[in-house]
Amino acid sequence: MDEVFGVGNATAVTRDLKALVRIRRSEYRSFGRRSLKERIETTGIPHLSETRSFDSTAAGGCILTGIGCSSGTAEGTARVGFDPGEVVPDGRYILVARSTDPGWVFLMASSAGIVAEKGSVLSHTAIIGRELGIPTVVGVRDATRLIRDGSPIRIDGGKGEVTCL
Predict the structure, then answer these.
(1) DSSP state for residue 65 in the 8-state scheme
(2) Statement to judge: residues 35 and 64 lie in one domain
(3) Looking at per-residue confidence, does 88 or 161 come out higher?
(4) Alpha-carbon distance 90 to 112, whole Å?
(5) pTM
(6) Pairing status of strand 67-70 against strand 136-138
(7) For the chain, is the Cβ count within 10 Å smaller at the N or the C terminus?
(8) Could you tell me if 91 and 124 lie in one domain?
(9) Are 78 and 93 in contact (CB under 8 A)?
């Protein structure tokens, strides 16, 4: 808004609003491709300190780590979902999600294991996993991006490991 009003106030660095919109759209798209850390800290001018994203090429035949919250091991097909209504379970599956809330419980209860990007030992995902006796690993950075839907995986809820098979 400041940039648009700047044109009228004669304080803008450009009067070409179409070019400015193209630049801002391009920047916005590039931000959408970034993978952010769980916690972001900045010093000085934030945009001068580029945020580095995780290199997904390092995850071929991956072993991802997180926090083991419910012990045991499970092997099955990864079902990656961002909304409980879009995950279609079939056979023995391991639920992979960014995080869960009570709307995910029916999928959690029918899964062989649970992997979540967000959470701690006191998170919803961890508590439900323990209550159901299902191996559960939380805090697995970029799990929904690195684990492909339908791929075979193994999880160890005691060690906090997720292995792509």
Answers:
(1) E
(2) no
(3) 161
(4) 11
(5) 0.66
(6) antiparallel
(7) N
(8) yes
(9) yes
